[in-house]
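Problem 12. The chain below contains 274 residues. Write out its predicted structure in token notation.
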Amino acid sequence: MSHTAHIPSHRKPRRSASKMALRAGVTGGVLSTLAVAGASGAASAAEPVTQTIELPTLTTDLSTQVAQSADATQQAAADYQLQAERDEAFTKAADQAKKDQAEAEQKAAAKKKAAAAARAKAEREATEKAASRSTERTTLAAAAPAGSTETAAAPASGSVASVISFLKAQVGDAYVMGGTGPSSWDCSGLVQAAFKQAGVDLPRTSQAQSTAGTSVSLSSVQVGDILYWGGAGSAYHVGVYIGNGQYLDAANPSKGVVIQDLSGYPASGAVRVL
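Solution.
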């Protein structure tokens, strides 16, 4: 024993049972509290695990995005194919247009060439025809005796000759206003019928016949030219020059179809249709 043990103030107090019980209770409470806290902490620590419930939602959104991306890719591919088809169609159309243009140009060139050939042929025929008419008129004029009031018979062939031959065959026929043959005539009806023998379709009236061909001066009038009295386009009478200063016409009811001298009844003008 310590030398101070007999001193009450220096003795270690004994722990009473109640205090020990109290301490045990406190300790148990603390442990319980810690256990509860630990459980609570464990529960808190487990909370992130409960967030995995949202994973299906995230997976659904991702699937939707993937599907949308696939749709967009498919649409882009379809658009690309459509554009490619349009480009191909445009290229074909452009090629066809070039081909059509080339064919059109070839046709136009061929048509132009044919027109030029036809024009050259027409000019050649017109030259030959003019030379033939000149020869016919010279023959008709030279065949008439000097100072004669009658013209010699015209050649049996040729456009001018056919006109003169027809006219002379009607000499002595009656004059009838509006007459067109075969045995009675007015002035324009006779002229129209005569030129029809040469394949020329003249208008019916003297007014229209006075402007039907090329105007010529009376000083250069030739056999077969149409003579008119009155103004061009308003003529009141027509006849045909047959050479040697003479013309043939359906004069009036008292004379009928006759051959007359221009000196006795000078014409106002002349036109040439042959």
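Discussion. Residues 159-272 form a domain with the endopeptidase fold (from Nostoc punctiforme) fold (CATH 3.90.1720.10). Students who got a different answer should revisit the alignment rule from Section 12.3.
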